[in-house]
Amino acid sequence: MAFKSSYLQRVYDGLVERNGEQKEFLQAAYEVLESLEPVVAQNPKLEEEGIIERIVEPERIIMFRVSWLDDNGKVQVNRGYRVQFNSAIGPYKGGLRLHPSVNLSVIKFLGFEQIFKNSLTGLPIGGGKGGSDFDPKGKSDREIMRFCQSFMTELSKHIGADTDVPAGDIGVGGREIGYLYGQYKRLRNEFTGVLTGKGLTYGGSLARTEATGYGLCYYTEEMLKCMKNESFKGKTVVISGSGNVAIYANQKATQLGGKVVAMSDSNGYIYDPNGINLDVVKQIKEVERGRIKEYVDRVSGAEYHEGCRNIWTVKCDIALPCATQNELDEDGAKALIANGVMAVAEGANMPSTPEAVTLFQSKGILFAPAKASNAGGVATSALEMSQNSERLHWSFDEVDGKLHDIMVNIFHACDDAAKKYGCEGNLVAGANIAGFEKVADAMIAQGVAY
Ligand code: NDP
Ligand code: 2IT
Fold first, then answer.
1. Which of 189, 188, 324, 300 has the alpha carbon at shortest distance from 245?
2. Distance 76 CA to ligand 2 centre (A)
C-alpha cells in the first residue's frame, strides 16, 4: 500500500505503528486517505496545519466497565465504549452498537466514518460512535433494561444535548433507546434531546425509524437517474440483513417499483421469487425478535438457505448490503457481476471489502458508498435534535421531504467533488472529499490548541 503523497504516507505509517491491530479502523482510514491524494496535492495548508494527523486521532476515547445483573441474579460484566472523534462542526453524533463483535477497532472505524457522513448531511453534527460487546440475543427485556441502565450510568457523565448525542445502531432500537433515555433523565433530572431515535411519545421524530432505509433508496434513485437514466422501477433487488435499515430499504425500494427477492440474517438468507412479503418479515423481526428462516414456514414458494454470504449469488439488478461491515467480499462481488448487477448501494457501514469496491468500479457498476448513501439516518437524527430544541413536532411528510432533499443534495455533493478533483463517477472519492472539506476548513478556522 503506497501513497503518492509523502505526507499521507507518513500519517498512515504512523497510524499502523500505533494501531496495528485495529484492522477495521485502518481499512476505513486507508480508504479516506487514498481519496484525499488530489486534495492534499492542491492544498499545502492541510500539511502545514497538520489536518490529516489530527483528523485520524479521536479527540477523546472513553472505555468503561458495564456490570449488570442477569435474571438469575448473577453478575455479568461487559465493556462499554464511546469514541468522541471530531467536534469541529457540531456536537459528537453517532450510534451505539450492541454486538459481541464490538471492540475498539470497530467503534473507531464507525466513529471515523461518521465524521465525513455527518458533514455530508449539511447539518451541524460532529462524529462519534459507541457501544458494547454485550450480546442482546436471547436476553429478556429486563436484562436489556438493566444493561442499558448500567451502561448509561457511566455514559451520562460524558454526553449531553450540546456535547454528544448517541442513537441506535446494530442491536439498539426503540426499546434500548427508551431504557437509556429513562436512565439519563433520572440521573440528570433533565428532559433534553440527549439521544435520538426516541419514541414518538417522548420527543422522537416521525420518520426516524424509516430514515436510513428510505434515505438509501432516495440516494440510489438519484444515482440511477443521473448516472444511468434508470430507476428502481421494474428492477429486482437483493437486500442483506433484516434489521432496521434492511426493512425500510425494502419498503421504499418496493414503493419505488422494485421487487425485493432476498433478505438475510447472520444465519442465512430467504429467497422469494414473488417478492418478499414485508409484513411477515416485520412480524418475525420487529415483533417476535425471531430468525429470518421462519419466513418459509409462513409464505409458500419461498426458500431458506443457510449461510448469509451466499445471498450475493441471487440474481439481481440492484444490491443493497444492509447488515454489517465486510459482508460483501470479492467472491460476493464476482457473483453479483456475473449475474448482471447494475448498482450496489451500501446501507450498512463499510459492508463491501476494498477488493469488492475495486471490482465494482473497474466493471463500471454504479457504487454508492455507505457514508453518503446511509447518511439519511443520522440526518434525520439531526432533524430530531432540531425539533427537540424548538420543542416542536414536525409531520411525517415534512421530515420525509427534508430527508429526500438531503439525500439528493448528498448525491450531488459527491458527484461534484469527484468531478472537481478529476475522478468523475467515483462516488467513493467524491463522498470522502466532500465530507472532508467542510471539517478541514472548520478545524483550520478553530486553530490548534497549545
Ligand atoms: P439491526 O440490529 O436492526 O439489524 C442488523 C441486521 O444485520 C440483522 O439482520 C443482523 O442479523 C444482521 N447482522 C448483524 N451482524 C451480522 C454479521 N456479523 N453477519 C451477518 N449479518 C449480521 O441493525 P441496523 O439495521 O440498525 O444496522 C445495520 C447496518 O446499518 C449496520 O452496519 C449499521 O452500522 C448501519 N447503519 C444503521 C443506521 C441506523 O439508523 N440504524 C444508520 C446508518 C447505518 P442477526 O439478527 O442474525 O444478528
Ligand atoms: O451509522 C449511523 O449513521 C447510525 N447508526 C445512525 C447514527 C445517528 O446518530 O442517528
1. 324
2. 27
